[in-house]
User: Which sequence fits this backbone?
């Protein structure tokens, strides 16, 4: 193990640079499939009553979310949790707030048949898409075996993998362009690290690679009130007592665009969200200036999706 | 026979196919022990182990704070899953593998779960530990700002905080239950201090305390997790898989070895079979050679024999030809004699008639009358006038003159006929000369006369067989013809017709003669048809009719028609034959080109 430690020390030096790494440039490995996925993403026939598409809640023009605390499903019912953004979802280690999907395909699979969200059946979706003339050519170009459930999910997942937002100002900074950030933003990043936000929000996605209990240093839910089933978080997946109130640490990429915040959408602004994080996750008190600097820093995490977001 | 042959072929093909299939099967089976697959899998397992080790190392680094982010703890799982999936392709349908692989999967899942917990707890522990000195410092700052820093309780508080900071740091490096208990009791003490504090220091102490208790809470959790993670036997499961794989490989090797042995045996058997076949081929080649040689020898003998036989045949044929020629000559001779005989008959008759006439001639009456006159020479007048006999004498003489005149005419006629017959005899003899190659003598003749002559020359035969001759002879102009040849042909044809009628008893024997002249593109053609209603000609004999030596008669030589055809050909014509079949009669047509001579009458 010592040898392995020594052997990997050059890589160590590099990784020590910063705990946050730039978003890798988005590559489109299968353009034909991504194109099918793009169409499906905007396809209302994915929902049981042809009312909503993926794009209904994941509006790419507004950070991949709809700005609501809880999104409205195909029958007008509110979803259990706040809609997470699809941007950089491919960089998350698991999908959904409670991480119940190990892959984008699994996530898509679940959403389409979710009784609140899209309320459809895959058999129906496959049939409808197979009948739709406008899909004939794109699907034939992308898949040898035509319209299947697996192919549709793969197409959507392929498309989602293209929805990464590289080249944020902060990433430019990470790549060595000091001038990409203002002094205050740089100070905000320093505070972000000093206060320990970085303990969870790290990696290429500034989060999205681990679970954490909401309310480490205080009982958030007691303070908030109105406990819901969704508040149990990962417990709903594993049934482990230790997983109660545990959620996937969300990515902070494009966070300035994705209000409201948290799984319950309770924080309407970034300042509010930062406040709650300090209170319940860090168990610390920070000055207004520090928090404002951190919020400013978070603003530099907004990247580009074929153009500035 | 072909069926048997086909059956044998099918049998041989099936046998060959079976052997090929067996060979292919054994070859494939012997390749099953292919090492490359095995080594690839072993490589995969090594990689798995390495990734797993790296994962554990990254966990430790995160614990030590060297790893600043958790991406490195997520990525191994992705790699592990991919490697495992590749391994699954290899192991899926092997019963034992399912158990071992299941254990491996359980180990990975458990480790993943523990690592997730580790990340959560480690980040908290880290944050609190990192913050503790600052928090302690904050307490000091706040207390100082509060203006109570010099008070005994404030001093004790600050001392306690600092001590707890130290204890916590020590604890974080070497956690023991004693230290934990001590920190815990100190926390209670700190609680006791608090009631003497104003809100601001109170809050900072609270924060400090909460982080200390966080360290106290999270440290054992993280330690436990690390222990558990290290205890997860992923590597052991990988080793299990490795062992399973190597066992399977050994087994496959043994099996392949076995199949290779079978393959060798089969190869030896096939070689033996091949040798046997080769020996057979050589042997049959020898047999074929021998038979060939024998065949060659036989052939040579046969050829020699055929040659001899051909020579014999040629000799026989020439002999036959000579005989035939001789027979032909004889035929001609007999024909000539016969014809001559016929004509001689006419001559004889004419001579008889003349003789009779001469014997019965009234010339004697004339002599008597002359004697009477001589008697009465002196008194010739008186005798003629007075004597009864004398008076009748002139009348008698007149009568006698008439009679004698008639007599003379009849005799002359008879003599004419005789002369003609003699001419025919001359002709018949000339005919024989024509066979001998005498140059043709063309003379202008009347066809009708020629036909009549030919009939006359066969008159005896025709009369003997009571054959009715029906003539349909068109009045044709005299044409220049080789009279003797044409006559010869007609005589022959009529003679043949007469002979064909010999056996006919149920109907009137008839010979029908017709002559005509026709114009064609190549000039005038004379056509004389001799038809009989006799025995007819068999279809199969039709073609050989004119062949030299062909005959249907017992006494025939097969020369007549042949010579006729020859003669006709020599004159630029032909003889055509037609028969409706046996007993349906026959028609022979002599076709001759005729040049209507300019000066011809």
Assistant:
């Amino acid at each position: 193990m010592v040898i392995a430690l020594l052997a990997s020390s050059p890589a160590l030096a590099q990784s020590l640079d910063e705990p946050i790494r730039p978003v890798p440039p988005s590559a489109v490995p299968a353009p034909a499939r991504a194109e099918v996925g793009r169409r499906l993403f905007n396809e209302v026939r994915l929902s049981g009553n042809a009312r909503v598409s993926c794009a209904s809640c994941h509006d790419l023009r507004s950070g991949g979310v709809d700005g609501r605390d809880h999104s409205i499903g195909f029958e007008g019912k509110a979803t259990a949790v706040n809609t997470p953004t699809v941007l950089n979802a491919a960089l998350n280690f698991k999908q959904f707030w409670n991480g119940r999907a190990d892959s984008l395909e699994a996530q898509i699979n679940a959403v389409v048949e979710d009784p609140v969200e899209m309320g459809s059946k895959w058999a129906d979706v496959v049939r409808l898409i197979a009948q739709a003339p406008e899909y004939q050519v794109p699907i034939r170009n992308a898949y040898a075996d035509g319209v299947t459930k697996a192919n549709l999910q793969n197409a959507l997942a392929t498309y989602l993998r293209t929805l990464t937002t590289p080249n944020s100002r902060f990433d430019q900074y990470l790549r060595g362009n000091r001038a990409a950030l203002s002094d205050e933003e740089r100070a905000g990043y320093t505070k972000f690290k000093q206060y320990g936000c970085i303990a969870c929000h790290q990696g290429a996605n500034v989060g999205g690679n681990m679970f954490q209990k909401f309310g480490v240093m205080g009982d958030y839910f007691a303070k908030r009130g109105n406990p819901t089933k969704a508040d149990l978080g990962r417990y709903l997946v594993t049934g482990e007592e230790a997983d109660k109130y545990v959620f996937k640490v969300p990515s902070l990429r494009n966070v300035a665009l994705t209000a409201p915040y948290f799984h319950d959408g309770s924080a309407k602004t970034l300042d509010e969200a930062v406040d709650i994080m300090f209170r319940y996750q860090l168990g610390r008190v920070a000055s207004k200036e520090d928090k404002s600097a951190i919020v400013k820093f978070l603003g530099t995490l907004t990247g580009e999706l074929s153009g500035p977001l | 026979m072909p069926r048997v042959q086909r059956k044998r072929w099918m049998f041989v093909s099936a046998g060959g196919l079976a052997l090929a299939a067996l060979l292919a099967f054994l070859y494939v089976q012997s390749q099953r022990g292919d090492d490359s697959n095995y080594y690839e899998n072993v490589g995969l397992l090594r990689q798995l182990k390495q990734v797993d080790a790296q994962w554990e190392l990254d966990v430790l680094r995160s614990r030590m704070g060297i790893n600043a982010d958790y991406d490195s703890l997520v990525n191994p799982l992705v790699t592990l899953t991919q490697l495992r999936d590749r391994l699954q392709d290899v192991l899926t349908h092997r019963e034992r593998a399912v158990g071992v692989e299941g254990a491996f999967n359980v180990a990975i899942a458990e480790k993943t779960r523990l690592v997730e917990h580790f990340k959560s707890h480690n980040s908290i522990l880290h944050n609190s530990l990192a913050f503790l000195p600052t928090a302690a410092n904050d307490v000091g700052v706040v207390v100082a700002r509060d203006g109570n820093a010099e008070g005994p309780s404030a001093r004790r508080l600050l001392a306690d905080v600092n001590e707890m900071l130290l204890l916590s740091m020590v604890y974080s490096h070497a956690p023991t239950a004693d230290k934990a208990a001590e920190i815990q009791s100190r926390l209670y003490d700190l609680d006791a201090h608090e009631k003497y504090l104003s809100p601001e220091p109170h809050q900072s102490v609270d924060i400090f305390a909460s982080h200390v208790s966080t360290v106290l809470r999270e440290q054992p959790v993280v330690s436990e997790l690390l222990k558990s993670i290290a205890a997860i036997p992923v590597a052991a499961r990988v080793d299990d898989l490795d062992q399973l794989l190597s066992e399977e490989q050994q087994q496959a090797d043994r099996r392949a070895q076995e199949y290779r042995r079978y393959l060798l045996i089969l190869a030896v058997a096939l070689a033996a079979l091949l040798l046997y076949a080769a020996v057979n081929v050589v042997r049959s080649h020898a047999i074929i050679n021998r038979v060939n040689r024998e065949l060659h020898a036989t052939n040579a003998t046969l050829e020699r024999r055929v040659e001899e036989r051909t020579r014999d045949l040629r000799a026989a044929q020439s002999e036959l030809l000579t005989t035939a020629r001789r027979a032909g000559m004889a035929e001609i001779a007999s024909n000539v004699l016969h014809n001559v005989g016929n004509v001689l008959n006419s001559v004889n008759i004419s001579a008889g008639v003349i003789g009779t006439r001469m014997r019965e001639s009234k010339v004697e009456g004339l002599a008597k009358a002359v004697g009477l006159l001589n008697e009465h020479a002196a008194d010739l007048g008186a005798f003629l006038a007075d004597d009864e006999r004398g008076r009748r004498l002139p009348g008698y003489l007149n009568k006698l003159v008439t009679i004698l005149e008639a007599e003379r005419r009849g005799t002359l006629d008879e003599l004419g006929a005789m002369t003609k017959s003699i001419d025919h005899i001359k002709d018949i003899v000339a005919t024989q000369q024509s066979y001998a190659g005498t140059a043709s003598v063309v003379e202008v003749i009347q066809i009708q006369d020629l036909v009549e002559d030919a009939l006359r020359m066969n008159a005896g035969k025709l009369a003997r067989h009571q054959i009715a001759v029906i003539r349909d002879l068109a009045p044709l102009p005299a044409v220049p013809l080789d009279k003797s040849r044409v006559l010869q042909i007609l005589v022959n044809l009529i003679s043949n017709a007469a002979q064909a009628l010999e056996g006919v008893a149920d109907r009137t024997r008839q010979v029908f003669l017709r002559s005509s002249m026709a114009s064609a593109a190549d000039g005038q053609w004379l056509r004389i048809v001799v038809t009989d209603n006799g025995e007819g000609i068999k279809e199969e004999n039709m073609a050989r009719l004119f062949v030299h030596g062909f005959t249907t008669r017992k006494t025939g030589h097969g020369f007549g028609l042949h010579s006729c055809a020859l003669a006709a050909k020599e004159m630029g014509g032909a003889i055509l034959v037609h028969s409706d079949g046996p007993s349906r009669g026959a028609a022979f047509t002599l076709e001759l080109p005729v040049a209507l001579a300019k000066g011809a009458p």
